[in-house]
Structures are given as C-alpha cells and as structure tokens.
Predict the 3D structure of the following.
Amino acid sequence: MITLALSKGRIFDETLPLLAAAGIEVLEDPETSRKLILPTNQADVRVVLVRATDVPTYVEYGGADLGVTGFDTLLEHGSSGLYQPLDLHIARCRMSVAVRANFDYAHAVRQGARLKVATKYVAIAREFFAAKGVHVDLIKLYGSMELAPLTGLADAIVDLVSTGNTLRANDLVEVERIMDISSRLVVNQAALKLKREPIRRIIDAFSLASVTQ
Ligand code: PRP
C-alpha cells in the first residue's frame, strides 16, 4: 500500500492533475466526504487528509509514504529526514512582510527600531530579519495575522500573499518579498527504499506533469 498525505483545499485540488498523470484518481471528494482516508482507483494507493502543517510530520514518521506540502510549511517544520525530490510548481504564492498603509516601515528599519512582528512563520521571519540585521520581537500567531497590525499587537506581519486581496481588504501593504513559495513532494526515506518501484513511478509521473504547470 502506498499512502499519500495531502491537505484539503488548494494543495489537494492542484495535486489532482499530477495524480491523474500517474494514473491515480481519488474516488471521493474531500469537500463532501467526512472520510480521512480516501480510496483511489488503484487498490494499493490511498490518500490521507491531514492538516497542511502536519504533512511533513506524517511523512517523516511513516504515517504516509509521500506527501505534498508548501515550501513554507517545510521550512518551518525543518526538512531533515525527508527526501524532497521535486518542486511541483503548484499552489504558488509568496512570503512577504506587510504593514499598515500609514506605517513607515523603511524609516523604522533605517532607525534600527525594534519591530514587533506577528506571524505563523516564526523560523522564516527570524532568519529573514536576522540576515537584514533588523531587531525583532516575534509574536507567534496561528491565524488571521492581518489583524495584528490593525489592533496594535504588531508593527508588521510575515504571511503568505497570493492575490493580495486579503492585504488590500485590511488596508495593509506588502513592503518586502521574502521568498517565492510553491508546493514540494516529500518522501519518507525508508519507504523510498522498501517501496522503491511504485514510489519511483509516482515521482517520475509527477516530475513530467509538474514541468508543464
Ligand atoms: C493565506 C494567507 C492570507 C491569504 C492570502 O491564508 O494567510 O491570509 O491566504 O491570500 P490572498 O493574497 O490571495 O488574499 P489561507 O487562506 O491559506 O488560510 P490560513 O489563514 O489558514 O493560512
């Protein structure tokens, strides 16, 4: 049995064409089914639905043989113990710094002020500001980071930006782009040895299909 860990939403939707290229069709829709293990048209391949931030953990500890996870999640989780053969070029977005439209970020940075930064992505934010030599107090949040600068909890946020609509709707502006983000295929290292053939077939099919994304 090959077990693939996916998270619901954009990653699931954008992985479907890659699975199709490998001849794999998921037989239930996660938006309507309450099942956490979804069968496929191949008796020896199944999909497990896990929270996006849990995908690297499932794959690292063998709860799944493979998984698709955002590069952001992978950087925060740490990628030791995971084989990462492919950038799938799906679920693309960027990690950025954003502030209230009336906050003078450039001035604050130039002055060497201590910035309060709210984010779910503490490791990425810490490394980014350390490399710039900017002192920050990091405030870990688990959601709705956009609210932090609006309520005075923080001066800035580090968050994913895709269309920019969420920032605009909350009068925030993007002031720095930290990195481009896309989803990666991750593979359990023991599974790669023990189930080499079927896993290789999936990697090869994903590889071919993802270059056309
Ligand atoms: C992400 C991110 C922003 C939003 C940006 O949240 O945290 O809130 O998308 O997208 P936009 O630029 O197209 O408006 P997501 O919807 O992934 O949910 P999350 O808050 O659970 O991370």
About this structure: The pocket of PRP is lined by residues 143, 159-166 (CB under 6 Å).
